Amino acid sequence: MIPIIPETSASLADPEPAPILSGPVTAPRIARKTISGIQLEGVSFDSRTHCLKVIDQKDGPGSSFPTSMDAANSLGGLMAINGGFFTPDGNPLGLVISDAKSTGGWNAASSLGSGIYRINSSGRASISRRSSRSAVSNSQELLQSGPLLIENSSAVRGLDSGKSALRSIILTDGESRWWVGKTSSCSLADLGRALAVSSPTSWKIRYALNLDGGRSTDLFISSKVPGGPVERRGFLNRPVRNFLVLTGR
Asked: Are 146 and 213 in contact (CB under 8 A)?
């Protein structure tokens, strides 16, 4: 069974949206770095030109897309990675919105739903802490997952330090710069501390969200990204319920 873990942060309000700063737009690229012994591999991109779309499989894990490569190819995407947690019977453990169509249900209790990745009706992408279902009612794309690893550039307190596993994560500077990818095996607490002091890219992380990991970890980067293709999927990998796919706007 999926554990229900209480919130560890006192703040439950969505942060004020940061302005998307003007500046040079860089094309998506593979970015790798080892921080505090944790290896990170993924793709950095600019949300002014690209976005992470949520792809859900209404008939359950693996029913439409057995792998992240299949999910990416379905949209002509540059990359794809496994998404949020799901229950033993294959239902999303939290709210999922794909192309303005919702499935799953609001997860108000578990730390595995304490964070929100979303694109609102204006096209603004963000990561925030869970507040209320009504606060995200105008979302075009949304994935409820967790826990948050970095909030306002600081490691979230109370992260688990016992279990070591592969991790899939999303990072942003709170403006237009993003990174999505996987890590080597580590604890959530060690990963939070590592991301608070460094980044796989040149910019400082303001928010970091944990996705499903372990045997669900499934990263694909297409040959459209310089240095690709890359496929990171374990032999014992299990089918997942949803994916995040990077596409052009």
From this structure: no
Is the bond preceding 147 in cis, omega lying within 30 degrees of 0?
yes
> What one-letter code names the amino acid at 160?
D
Q: Is residue 22 part of a domain?
A: no
Under 8 Å between Cβ of 149 and 155 = yes
**Residue 12 domain-assigned (yes or no):** no
**Domain-embedded: residue 2:** no
Helix (H) or strand (E) holding 171: strand 165-172
What range does the domain containing 142 cover? 29-248
Q: Which residue stretches of 18-78 are H helix?
A: 68-75
Q: What is the per-residue pLDDT for 6?
A: 39
Q: For residue range 138-192, what is the model confidence (pLDDT) as tens digits?
A: 999 999 999 999 999 999 999 999 999 999 999 999 999 999 999 999 999 999 9
Q: What residues have CB less than 8 Å from 136, skipping those under 6 apart? A: 95, 116, 118, 142
Q: Evaluate whether residue 220 is within a structural domain.
A: yes
Residue 21, pLDDT score: 59
Q: Rounded distance, CA 170 to CA 181, Å?
A: 7
| Cβ 116 vs Cβ 133: under 8 Å | no
